[in-house]
Design brief:
The protein is an alpha/beta fold. The chain has a single domain, classed as Rossmann fold (3-Layer(aba) Sandwich). It is 36% helix and 19% strand. It has 3 helices and 4 strands. It has a 4-stranded parallel beta sheet with strand order 3-2-1-4, sandwiched between helices. Helix 1 packs parallel to helix 2. The termini are far apart.
């Protein structure tokens, strides 16, 4: 008997609260496995435990600050170490700047 085909995996950054958490709940409810990243490990684990129990989703938690050098590579490595690949991305992590959009530096 062959192993079941894994569900598609959505990578969600900024997943410990707000829109990121909402997206995690939505995609788990619609049959996706998740790779969740944010800085708050405890919060990620709490959300993951709930989504595993409620929806049977495989949920990888990868606590990282994506502003740190090398963090994006560590994120990809963590997903690949689980034998998975990312099928979709919700890039919700970030921070705000003050000022008009057109006057801000792209950097």
């Amino acid at each position: 008997m062959s192993a079941p085909t894994p569900r598609p995996m959505m990578l969600i950054t900024g997943a410990s609260a707000g829109l990121g958490e909402g997206f995690a709940r939505l995609y788990a409810a619609h049959g996706w496995d998740l790779a969740l990243t944010a800085r708050r490990a405890e919060r990620l684990e709490a959300i993951a435990a709930e989504l595993r129990a409620r929806h049977g989703a495989q949920v990888l938690t990868i606590p990282l600050d994506l502003a740190e050098p090398g963090a994006p590579d560590r994120l990809v490595d963590a997903v690949e170490a689980e034998g998975r690949h990312v099928d979709g991305l919700i890039n919700n992590a970030g921070y705000s700047l003050t000022g008009g959009f057109l006057s801000l530096s792209p950097a």
